[in-house]
Amino acid sequence: MRRILATFLVALWALGAPAAAQQPFAAAATVNGTAITNFQVQQRALFFSLLRAPGADTETVTEKLIDETLQIQAARDAGVELSPEELDEGLVEFASRVNLTPDEFITALERAGVAPETFRDFVRNGLYWRRLVQQRFGPRARPSEAEVARTLARGGSGDVRVLLSEIALPLTPENQAETQALAARLSETIQGQAAFERAARTYSRSNSARAGGRIDWVALSDLAPPIASQVLALAPGEVSEPINLGGFIGLFLLRDLDESGASASEAASIDYAEYLIPGGRTPEALSAAARLRTRVDVCDDLYGVAKGAPEGTLTRRVAQPSDLPADLRQELAKLDAGEASTLLTRDGYLRFVMMCERVSNPSEEAFQALGQQILNQRLTSYAQGYLDELRADAIITR
Predict the structure, then answer these.
(1) Which residues, listed in sequence order, are joined to residue 277 by a DSSP beta bridge?
(2) Residue 225 to residues 171, 233, 243, Cα–Cα distance (Å)
(3) Which letter, b or e, does each residue of 243-282 get, where b requires 16 or more Cβ atoms within 10 Å of its Cβ?
(4) Which domains does the chain have, with CATH numbers?
(5) Could you read off the pLDDT of 131-179 as tens digits, one per residue?
(6) pTM, two decimal places
(7) End-to-end CA distance of the chain, in Å?
(8) Edge-to-edge strands of the sheet including 34-37?
(9) How many whole angstroms from its chain centre is CA 247?
């Protein structure tokens, strides 16, 4: 929203007042006897278009105003009240996103044909609904300290998360030029998620290849910095430039980004094991890795396998993600406890890398941020279910 609003003033000054619609105060819809006028629909559509927000078409705006009417009716039935001072605070907060006062913001809107009441109603309606949801579902939705601790133990955090697809092309001294050329060609020719998934199935050597390169949500802080910096510059559906991480070249498609829990959180330490198999990425070494995978469920199982093996065959360490090489950090970021990767090589060996566990020692700030994230997610779910009930029980005409 902040990036959308950053260009808001340019759009406002470039647009003029809209043409007057026929019968502006005729009802576009009624909700339990309350009319939503054509004028309100036109005003909200113009307001959304100036914000460059999604859903600025007439049909979507009408549905949104129906929802808001139901929400206001429910809030008033529940005795929810909003003081003039609280509404003023809401207006100040919204306008401050583009470094304006409410009066300056309203003046800019009026120049583009948006009435002040449209802005005030938009903010007011959101405040009423938020207060009703918190009043009705807040006690039920708030997680206990034990629930937050369990989520942290499973790897949850208050970090920004990204949903990626990957193409991982292993690098060896023998294939450097060929692999770099392939990565460049794929980066230039892939258009869209379907094409990316086909290329992943064909060329990628990561565990995710069979799924079209799809990997689950990953905390941005767990990614290697070269990947994180490129991912943040992508829009959903866009593909990164080839990223050389040492052990492999990666291309990444951003499928989604979740900033709802963004906070400064303390990164978890990573407990991992690495078992070296002679032969690099030869068929024999890859077959040996597949057989090893059937023999081990947890990292401790590797000690029995390594009994009698040369010194250095098995290593295990606990490290901060920031202390790991980029290629190893990226592979471990995708793994849960007990999962393994065979993408990387070193000095003629295939590296069987296994995640043992993530050891989280969250700060109080991170703990509180995760608790708020869980609360917000639950309130959103409860609010949508309640709105669906209100719609089902309402008399709506268009």
Answers:
(1) 350
(2) 19, 13, 11
(3) bbbebbbbbbbbbebeeebebebbbbbbbbbbbbbebbbe
(4) 2-143+376-397 (1.10.4030.10), 157-258 (3.10.50.40), 269-359 (3.10.50)
(5) 999 999 999 899 888 777 766 655 554 467 889 999 999 998 889 999 9
(6) 0.51
(7) 31
(8) 34-37, 27-31, 396-397
(9) 27
Task: Report which of 49, 53, 50, 29 is spatially closest to residue 39, judged by C-alpha positions.
Answer: 29
In sequence order, what are the residues at sequence separation of 6 or more whose Cβ sits closer than 8 angstroms to the Cβ of residue 241? Answer: 187, 230, 251
**Residue 302 to residues 248, 272, 286, 318, Cα–Cα distance (Å):** 25, 11, 17, 16
Tell how strand 27-31 and strand 396-397 pair up. antiparallel
Strand partners, 345: 350
Instruction: Note the pLDDT tens digit of each residue in 244-257.
Output: 999 999 999 999 98
Q: Which amino acid is at 340?
A: A
Q: Enumerate the H helices of the chain as residue ranges.
A: 2-6, 8-14, 38-51, 58-77, 84-95, 102-111, 116-141, 145-153, 176-189, 193-203, 225-231, 283-295, 301-305, 326-333, 364-393
